[in-house]
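Repro:
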Amino acid sequence: MTSGGTPPSIAGPNNEWTTVMAPWAFVVAAGAISSSALLDPAVLNLGDLAWSIGMLVLASAASALATRRPKMGLSIVTPLAGTGWALMLILATGGSSSGLSLSLLLPVTWAAINLAPRDSLTVLISLAVAEYVVTVDPVSLGDGLRVRRVGIYLLVGSLIAYAIHALRKRLAQFDEQRSAANDRMRVTITALETRSREERELRRLMDRLHASQSRDDGFELIRQAAPSLFRSSGAISIIDPLTDELPAATTWVVSPDDPNVSIPVNCAVFRQASELTWQGQDHCDQMCAGVQATACRPLMRENTVVGIILARLPEDQTDSLPEWSADDEFRHLLAISAEQFSTWITTFELRESLRELSVRDPLTQLFNRRYFEATLDRELDVAQRTASPLAVLMVDIDHFKDFNDTFGHAIGDQILQSVATLLDEIFRGSDMAARTGGEEFTLVLPNCTSDVALVRAERLRSQLRDRVITVPGIGAVDPPTISIGIAASPPFGASREQLLRAADHALYRSKHAGRDQTSVARVLD
């Protein structure tokens, strides 16, 4: 609070007390004192009384006008006019009324409530000087008594002014503390609302991620949701386990003018597996595409870094909240997002592994019987609806048990893997190969006739004979031969059981005819 100017009143500069109640309170109090002094006056000077009433009207008008136009400097006129009113009242009544002491203190009290300390002191001194001067002639008082009265007025007025100003100062401090507390509360509420919104958005995103069918679909969901969630540009990179490179899985920007964010191969987060926050140009060895304020967080699976999430610090959040709060809130969001994304990646990979285990043969990595039967039913339905051909091949390794017993199970497994590799090499990507028994394989060839299937079957038999199997301690040995049975729809294919039974009969004919050959199912089969 400065000494110059008009400070706010106790309740504030724009409140009911200052604008309405203060002038009327002054008028009522002054009127009550005037009435008390005039009830039984020993002396009554009508001229001085008129001046007293005029001063009271002037003080009231100045008070009312000052509250509405504070820049006009009328605030000090009120207590000075009030002083004139009190002293003229003394002259009018000859100083005989007991209420006059209150009349002299009323302007001092009003000044202490509404004016700065310097102006209050001016009013108090003016009151003391006027009291001394006015009481020289009209009121017969000795010099010593007048001095004592002036001294008493100064002392009492000073105490009143000091007490009121001390109260105003304390209330002003309370008001500042309340304002600061309100500001902190608003910041806290804003931060809590922001965190609640972010957590809701993140929760919705995670629900959609866990329902996604592929990792690419999941990263596309992140790309769409991240600008609203982080309110800044960013990127996620997943480490390639074969090359240790960091290709970007997804990137996002808030506006077209934002620079794309990329993560360098030798990112410090990847090396340290910890969070890093960079401000200005104090970055790691390679700056992340020139972005000046970024935060990085590793994506962890158990104790291994599988990727990195990087985002710029949002400028709007830094402007709307204290720097420390905005920074902490953003880093908190990035931390829980990294944790949730890591969980999703781990869960998705685990789910894919379990799915692979449920449909794949662990030795040959071909599909198992359960998946084969479901696929064959689906392909048969498509073939019947589109009137397209479909072929099934049954492949059986000849004398596999004897070969396995002679050279050992490890060599037998090598034979099975060689056959599986040939199936992948020879047949199309749309064809499906499965291991349906110990040494038995079955293939589904959509949109393929029995004649085309026969050509591919013969190619398979030929290439398997050209393979060389190396047995430790023995050397190279000829691989076993295979027998193949083919059935096509049409004429077969009314059901999966019928088609497989026809292919099995064709395979039996190949075995019965001496093995190492291919047979095509006939209607008579």
